[in-house]
Amino acid sequence: MKLFRKKDLLVYLGGLVFALISVSIFYWILKPQKTLPVFQPATVNLKLVDSSIQYVSKYHNISAFSLINQNGDTITEKFYNGKIYVADFFFTTCQDICPIMTRNMHVLQEKLKDDDEVLLLSHTVMPEVDNVETLKKYSMDYNVDDNKWNLVTGDKEQIYNLARKSYLAAEDAEFKKYDLIHTENFVLIDRESQIRGFYDGTKIDEINLLLDDLKILKNSYK
Fold first, then answer.
1. Of 93, 168, 189, 213, which residue is the least packed, with the fewest Cβ within 10 Å?
2. In this predicted structure, which of 40-54, 56-70, 125-139, 162-176 has the lowest mean pLDDT?
């Protein structure tokens, strides 16, 4: 009789374990997986978007570009083809938010140093001041990894258009043609050159959120 009861107990426990495992598997399968939005000009703060594209509500991508990095190398969109990357805008003489943003971009660099799928890209909004030599010194001051992070300068009109028509990350300064009021935004770009997130580059909790969203984005390609 005791043996029979032990068998019953084992069968019961086995069934219970099986049921729990089954429920967990079904929950995991049916649970909606978090995905990141694809941002369009029409869904972003219009102050950051050139008036010529404010109506665009789909198919927005980062435009082709050709700029020069801190080593004097030409960097085009092809460098980032098939990669995820984080972009921002700054200038080297900025004493307000730029140093904080650059330090936090360096945090990303260190967190992602072994991740070949993710790169970084910082554009100066004052190319007339930030030449290659200036960017090189700045990059050395902040221990920039040249293989991971490009600081770029170039034609001012092109940088203006990238900020306002591609990355949607700067206001028009108005008082002078092609001058920008850059924001604190870090912009997350996916492998298809689409915007997948905006983050306050001056706040470490936003940097942590960006890192979490990077995991979600990378998982979406599996």
1. 93
2. 162-176
Using DSSP bridges, classify how beta strands 195-200 and 66-69 pair: parallel, antiparallel or unpaired. unpaired
78: exposed, middle or buried (C-beta count within 10 Å: 0-12, 13-18, 19+)? Answer: exposed
Question: For position 17, what pLDDT does the model report?
Answer: 53
Q: pTM for this one?
A: 0.85
Q: Given the DSSP bridges, would you call strands 66-69 and 149-153 parallel, antiparallel or unpaired?
A: antiparallel
**pLDDT single digits (tens) 189-204:** 999 999 999 999 999 9
Within a 10 A sphere around the Cβ of 25, how many other Cβ atoms? 10
Measured distance CA(88)–CA(91) in Å, rounded: 10
**Phi/psi of residue 76, nearest 5 degrees:** -120, 175
Residue 171 · residue 181 · CB < 8 Å: yes
Angle value at C-alpha 33, between 27 and 36, nearest 5 degrees: 165
* Angstrom distance (rounded) from CA 86 to CA 121: 6
